[in-house]
Amino acid sequence: MAELTITVVGIAHVLEPGKEFTFGRGTDCTACLDPGDVGISRLAGSVGYESGTWWLHNRSAHRQLVVVNHLGLRNVLAPGLRYAVEGRVRVLVEGSRGSHHLDLAGPPPAVSSAEDRPGLTTAIGQEVVITDEDRAALVALFAGYLREGERYDPCPRSYHAAATRLGWPRTTLVKRIEYLRTRLTKAGVPGMNGHRAMENLAEHVLTSGVITKADLRLIGG
């Protein structure tokens, strides 16, 4: 059975094909997020099943939704557009009085999760090996992508903040990350230099499975 579970404020709603789940500020929605928050559309979005796939649909005429995939990466869903739900995703609804999130757990994607990677080192690119120390540095920088709920923050930390979390000198962290970026560039990974280098590095290590939620243990959660 292609069921999908939607959890809002700790309450789980199990959806079967043929049923629709709606959310917004309207009291007639399946999940009324905040009836007094005019920053949320009356009908912000819906989830339904069509042609063998669960779809998240942005029903608002003016407000965007944010979809966070299982890797912690954000996708902006503009008004009127829809998103195919595979595996676990989170939906962020920003209002004028606060933000709300919905956890969606549907049928798994056809490709297995990167979290299934074995071992403590990962080879990416052309023989670029990620050591335990490299991984700890990456997690300290990009932990916000891996966390959930109010702790989710898809923005790299500063070198100073990351080094402090690890108890390292800042220069040690900077040298390790810059050396890693150099190796990745030589291996053909694009975007490792320039004003978006850190965001590109975050996207690369998350999508390639170099760091996962399980690695938050390296910095104490």
Provide a count of the helices: 4
- pLDDT averaged residue by residue: 90
Strand content: 25-35%
User: Which runs of at least 5 residues are low in confidence (pLDDT < 50)?
Assistant: 112-120
Total domain units: 2
Q: Could you say which overall geometry the principal axes of the C-alpha atoms support?
A: elongated
Order of helices and strands: EEEEEEEEEEEEEHHHH
Q: Can you give a write-up of this model?
A:
With 221 residues, the protein is α+β, with helices and mostly antiparallel strands. The chain has 2 domains: 102 residues, Tumour Suppressor Smad4 (Sandwich), CATH 2.60.200; 106 residues, no CATH class. Helices cover 23% and strands 27% of the residues. It is built from 4 helices and 13 strands. Helix 1 packs across helix 2 and helix 2 crosses helix 3. The longest helix has 17 residues. It is elongated. About 4% of the residues have low confidence.
What key phrases describe this protein's structure?
23% helix; elongated; six-stranded antiparallel sheet; Tumour Suppressor Smad4; five-stranded mixed sheet; 221 residues; 4 helices; alpha+beta
